[in-house]
Amino acid sequence: MRVGILGSGLMGGKLGTIFARAGHEVVFSYARNMEKLHELARNAGKNARVGTPREAAQEADAVLLAVHWSRLDDVLSQAGDVSGKVIVTCSLPMNEDNTELVVAHTSSGAEQLEKRIPKARVVAAFNTVPSEVLFGVYERKRKAGRPSLVYCGDDEGANGVAAELIEAAGFDPVNAGPLRIARYTEPFALLVAQLAYEGAGGPELAYRFERFKK
Amino acid sequence: MRVGILGSGLMGGKLGTIFARAGHEVVFSYARNMEKLHELARNAGKNARVGTPREAAQEADAVLLAVHWSRLDDVLSQAGDVSGKVIVTCSLPMNEDNTELVVAHTSSGAEQLEKRIPKARVVAAFNTVPSEVLFGVYERKRKAGRPSLVYCGDDEGANGVAAELIEAAGFDPVNAGPLRIARYTEPFALLVAQLAYEGAGGPELAYRFERFKK
Predict the structure, then answer these.
(1) What topology does CATH give the domain B2-198?
(2) SS3 letters across chain A
(3) Which residues 108-137 in chain B show a CB within 8 A of chain A?
């Protein structure tokens, strides 16, 4: 799969590296400086390269949107027309201080994004685990006991693409339903962040859903 | 510990039964009919009995609040003065149809409750798993691989009481911080409900937080 990374910060950089190592063709774009982008691509190996947001988006089978919420308009205007594209968003609708959601309860960041690019096929995923856990999960390899990763979206085909990427990253994809469920997954992401960064045990935190029958 | 149950429906009935079987002294109160209450107490064994909400609350070391959000004022007025009491709430602030939270984002049900009874010591717990999983977890017994259960509250002593009850029910208590974190745990509860009732695999769903280090 060709995966374009819009926003090559902590999440985008690590996920892009993992997708490249898992055999996908990755284009990193939109970081604070070009040097960082080139270093990312070098470290990620032969399947990774650097491009503009437009290149990252236009040739991609899946676009990972991993920018700070405040950069959304800017990155989308640089990416160009994304009609029909699968957009996997892990961007939480945070305020500038990263202390609070600016959209919640009666909407979600993912739904706002879908309104902003109604012809794209939006899936919310990868936003419910901290970037610190990603390499630990990916390098683990064993399939038994994999952590879960919830995703939600309204387009079945796009959901399938997201599930494939989730699986490539070493997680067990859990379909949480339509995109409006992001109203629950986004606050859940903040619960995970609270436990990861304020709790004891370190930030390498993931979660697993399990059934316990009598 | 003496545990008063305010609201002996699905959650309150099952948790009270589990607390009684685990050796706590339980008073069931506030169900739709007295017959149901007496049946609950009979099934729960020698540590359980039936009482009025006032009896359940006044003699308790911990009060489990497990009523529908719409019954909050009614049950609190029947319970009497709860100053100084540990109130463990699993009541989510749902609308009458149980389809949506009526409080979220800038507040939470737990915080609204604390405002309503400012002299009580409120902890939010047991609201993030469906009632269907409770007996499966309790009867499991093995300590390894226990599911997590998040709780949050502003009173350290009350948090300790809640953690003890969580442990008695077979879960691994996870302290998520101050009561305002209920703004994240309550939407998380709706995510769990979505996966339990709309997902594949049945409603006996719990979750576990785990670290994955490199």
Answers:
(1) Rossmann fold (3.40.50)
(2) CEEEEECCCHHHHHHHHHHHHCCCEEEEECCCCHHHHHHHHHHHCCCEEECCHHHHHHCCCEEEECCCHHHHHHHHHHHCCCCCCEEEECCCCECCCCCCECCCCCCCHHHHHHHHCCCCEEEECCCCCCHHHHHHHHCCCCCCCCCEEEEEECCHHHHHHHHHHHHHCCCEEEECCCHHHHHHHHHHHHHHHHHHHHCCCCCCEEEEEEECCC
(3) 133, 135-137
